[in-house]
Amino acid sequence: MDNTKEKILQVAGRIFSRFGFYKTSMDEIARTSHKAKGSLYYHFASKEDLFTEVVALELKNLKKELAMVVTDPELDPREKIKKYLLTRMAVLYRASNYQETLKADFFEHFEFVDHLRADLDHWEKEQLKSIIKKGIETGEFADQHEKMDVLLDVFIMVLKGLEIPFFLQNKYSELSPHFDDLINILVKGMAA
Fold it and tell me: What is the sign, positive or negative, of the torsion defined by CA atoms of 82, 162, 104, 20?
């Protein structure tokens, strides 16, 4: 990525996270990044495109962090599920622009980021499937092959359901000490 585009994304990420999508203007991003407004529109067709790319970077970081958990040879499948969920919540806690898309779902929908969220769902299902399959192979988890798709859908629903109290209702700090209990319930449900 060239320096101008990278600088614009960094500045836009900070401004969007501070003021939100609607209260952020392309003029403010241009001024703060010390770039001409035309430079913004050279790299991004609209404010929506710029915001989408900012959110995409947050999700890219999330995927990178989660992939390290999934491929960690030191963790058994149960530990991977636990660490996956804990890492996911911790990374999304810092992803303020992703959180902005959650808030928008309650008021007006940001259709322009739907493809990012759908891609994340698909990607996460594949990661969780690989962990669960390994757990079945090692005998740690009950054989779930015939209902794997349903199990993965439930996992994703639980993860997304937790985003509302954690991020929209600002209960992350209050509830985070209880993550282990929640995760134990999920993992016990798959035990062999």
Answer: negative
Instruction: Write out the H or E segment, with its range, that includes residue 30.
Output: helix 26-33
- On whether the CB atoms of residues 98 and 110 are closer than 8 A, the answer is no
> Which residue is listed with tokens 């299902």?
125
- Please list the rounded mean pLDDT of every run of 10 residues in the chain (192 residues): 88 94 94 94 95 96 98 95 91 90 69 89 96 92 86 88 81 81 77 67
24: CATH: 1.10.10.60
**Whether 97 contacts 13, CB under 8 Å:** yes
Residue 6, C-beta contacts closer than 8 angstroms, at least 6 positions apart: none
| Domain containing residue 134 | 54-188
